Amino acid sequence: MASIADYYAGKNVLITGATGFMGKVLVEKLLRSCPEVRTLYLLVRPKAGQSMQERVSDMMKCKLFDRVREDNPDFHQKIVPISSELTQPALAISPEDVERLTSCVNIIFHCAATIRFDEPLKHALQLNVIATQQLLSLAQQMHHLQAFIHISTAYANCNRRHIDEIIYPPPVEPKKLIDSLEWMEDSIVRDITPRLIGERPNTYTYTKALAECVVQRESSKLSIGIIRPSIVGASWQEPFPGWIDNFNGPSGVFIAAGKGILRTMRANNDAVADLIPVDVVINLTLAAGWYTAVHRPKAALVYNCTTGGINPFHWGEIEHHVMSSFKRNPLEQAFRRPNANITSNYLMNQYWILVSHKFPALIYDLYLRLSGQKPQMMRIFNRLHKAIGLLEYFSSQDWEWNSENMSMLMSHLSPEDRKVQHSTLTCVS
Ligand SMILES: CCCCCCCCCCCCCCCCCCCC(=O)SCCNC(=O)CCNC(=O)[C@H](O)C(C)(C)COP(=O)(O)OP(=O)(O)OC[C@H]1O[C@@H](n2cnc3c(N)ncnc32)[C@H](O)[C@@H]1OP(=O)(O)O
Ligand SMILES: NC(=O)C1=CN([C@@H]2O[C@H](COP(=O)(O)OP(=O)(O)OC[C@H]3O[C@@H](n4cnc5c(N)ncnc54)[C@H](OP(=O)(O)O)[C@@H]3O)[C@@H](O)[C@H]2O)C=CC1
Questions:
Q1: Taking the CA of residue 153 as centre, how many other CA atoms within 13 Å lie in the half-sphere pointing to its CB?
Q2: 247 in contact with ligand 1, CB cutoff 6 A
Q3: Where are the domains of the chain?
Q4: Per residue in 126-179, pLDDT tens?
Q5: Is 151 helix (H, G, I), strand (E, B) or coil?
Q6: What's the ipTM?
Q7: Among the listed residues 232, 229, 264, the one whose alpha carbon sits nearest the alpha carbon of residue 246
Q8: Closest C-alpha among 193, 187, 217, 216 to residue 205
Q9: Contact 71, 35 (CB under 8 A)
Q10: Buried b (16+ CB within 10 A) or exposed e, 214-252
Q11: Which of 171, 267, 405, 415 could lock onto 395 through a cystine, CB 3.0 to 4.6 A?
């Protein structure tokens, strides 16, 4: 059987979300460890005054691509940006580009999504569900497609405590919701959102669950794999340790603690912190693409890409490691000495918010005002409180994911691929 790199040799790959955190790592890894891959078509939109070409050129200059650049200075020739706004009808891809893609794409990785926890439902539905549906329609027109890999989240079913590698019935029939929201005013949608999302904490997890269902419905026509990563953090080993480009999930919390701003947060010391490095997720994603294309499973295979069941780590241990690491390596321009604690007690947390967040912010802003400067500390704390308020749901409880398909996939790798997949194997075993 072909190795992973042999499989991708000569293949045309379509990637959505390539400018995002995970997408960039996927593009890098494909170019580095599958050097014979033919073309990577990236669906990109213009943004912040930059054309899609400028955005992709800037991305390729990033340090993340240093190793690829060393191996092959002309690697950019393999990258073809395709203009696409995923929230528009037919993904706003030109007819010429549709023609080009449908005639040559062999494998699709769908990473694009809105991952904001405070996204209005209509927009989250548009991007996470409707765009996925449209991409599946495009996939069906592709003459040489061998696999469709959808990136979901381990928390799509966070209303359950135990989560198997199956697609659960959706909270609502996606089509019915899409049809109803279409005519509703934004203010009405905002009012009914809490009732709709029910036990889920935000529109993100709700729409990701609906997207899985939409993907599953195409599984008789396409070969599909669904990857469900838990909390994706900085790279562990590849292309180098510690690469990250955002403050999502716990990363922002760690920095706020290191800067001495955050001193208290509600989390359960004994709950499993299901963190997974981005390179491990991407290695698994590429392996799943290979497996799906080669084995053509009859039903969509779901991979719970999680670590808690195999190598559990707890929020209490994280607090200890994060704090001792900042004590050894202090951050520059810290507000004060890092000294953050987590507590599961709501009242205790409120007390510390008052004493070690709001009161010092008030005093500091008073000092800024008196010295003729603009007050800013209370504004920073208000933003921090909003962010941690949205994260606490995930740090105050734990989940149990079955990850048999991930282990099955690892056991199918050739000895050669095992070396390339070293980080995945070590992290999940
Ligand atoms: C004692 C220390 C150790 C403590 C240990 C305990 C830690 C517990 C941490 C628990 C974390 C649990 C996280 C679980 C998440 C699981 C979810 C499932 C995973 C996924 O499937 S997807 C990834 C998850 N998605 C996110 O994380 C997105 C969450 N973010 C948002 O929804 C929005 O950013 C937010 C928080 C609503 C803020 O919106 P807004 O105010 O509009 O701000 P912007 O997003 O525009 O950002 C403005 C500015 O702020 C920076 N920023 C954003 N978030 C943070 C943050 N958390 N901390 C610090 N700074 C942050 C952002 O980069 C922007 O900067 P600019 O310079 O660009 O302006
Ligand atoms: N990060 C995490 O912890 C986890 C992420 N996931 C999943 O992984 C996937 C990738 O997440 P991540 O990389 O962190 O997310 P990012 O927010 O970093 O990236 C999102 C990507 O989607 C693209 N995108 C968003 N809106 C549009 C649009 N309207 N048209 C075209 N492209 C658009 C963005 O493009 P642009 O640059 O133009 O905005 C960007 O490339 C998502 O599906 C997410 O649900 C799952 C579990 C955990």
A1: 28
A2: yes
A3: 4-230+274-310+403-428, 315-395
A4: 999 999 999 999 999 999 999 999 999 999 999 999 999 999 999 999 999 999
A5: strand
A6: 0.92
A7: 232
A8: 193
A9: yes
A10: bbbebbeebbbbbbbbbbbbbbbbbbeeebbeeebbbbb
A11: 267
Distance 10 CA to ligand 1 centre (A): 39
Which residues are CB-contacts of 402 (< 8 A; sequence separation ≥ 6)? 162, 163, 164, 165, 304, 309
Q: Which residue's structure tokens are 């529109």?
A: 203
> Which residue's CA is the nearest one to ligand 2's atom 36?
19
C-alpha dihedral sign at 315, 319, 322, 328: negative
Judge contact between 157 and 209, C-beta under 8 A. yes
**Are residues 304 and 168 in contact, defined by beta-carbon separation less than 8 angstroms?**
no
> How many Å lie between the centroid of ligand 2 and the Cα of residue 337?
34
Q: How many residues does the chain have?
A: 429
Nearest CA-CA partner of 138 in 130, 207, 10: 130
> 106-138 burial, b if ≥16 CB within 10 A, otherwise e?
bbbbbbbbbbebebebbbbbbbbbbbbbbbbeb
**CATH code of the region 4-230+274-310+403-428:** 3.40.50.720
- Give which of 377, 379, 294, 382 is closest to 336, Cα–Cα: 377
- CA dist., res. 312 & res. 209, Å (int): 25
pTM for the predicted model, two decimal places? 0.95
